[in-house]
# Entry
Amino acid sequence: MTLERLSESIRLVQFTDCHLHADAAQAYKGYYPERRFDSVIADIRQRSANSGAYDHLIMSGDLAQFGASSVYQRILDKTVGLARNRHWVPGNHDDKGLMSQFSDMAAKVVVQGDWAIVLLDSTNDPDGVGSGAISDADLHLLAQADQLSVSYILLVLHHPPISVNSIWQDKIKLSNSYAFWQVVNSLTKVQAISFGHLHQELHLVRDNIDLFCTPATTYQYKAAQKEVTIEDEQELAKAAYRLFELYPNGAVGAEIVRVS
# Structure
């Protein structure tokens, strides 16, 4: 899918699940996460050079394999100029205490035109194997999202808030997804939800809300599996990121870009 560009639309680029190490040369699961990350950044930079900087860069968690301040600083250094604004949320592998030290990245609500991007921390109450939850305090804030002076809302978090017919991954989704959907279903402005964590591309629709999972910059997982299975289909195994176009009529355009 090629996104239709409109001058009044909002252009986003999202990457997720980088799993970068303090040692940038370190391999993991047979891949070199830093090299794959660099290839994604180079591709985004080329697109940005051709069409102008994106409005927002969204980094949706598991940016580090083991949270390290040097990793977060490298990410910020390497993404300078990719977008007019940069935002991140933590994943279960991140150290959100370290991430919070970069105070300019800590916004929870971003408003532009008729749209608001609400960034949610889904790493509370970890179970030690990959799941996480949205805190009661953040659910309370989310419940007031319709009061924002916008017409449409995009939610961003790390963990998938739905089951995806993948037995091992459904065990580590958003653990309080029922409470999350109770809040979301009480709202009228949520048009789309974007997340990561699954290392694969998905587009689902629930209650007229588009749900997008963005593949990882590092290794990918096969969809709909009983056990952990690394993706080995050549095209699907590539490093990837997602482009969004938020239109003034509330429509959401989305495109996956895979990078050799």
Observations:
- The helical segments are 33-51, 69-78, 96-99, 136-142, 167-170, 177-184.
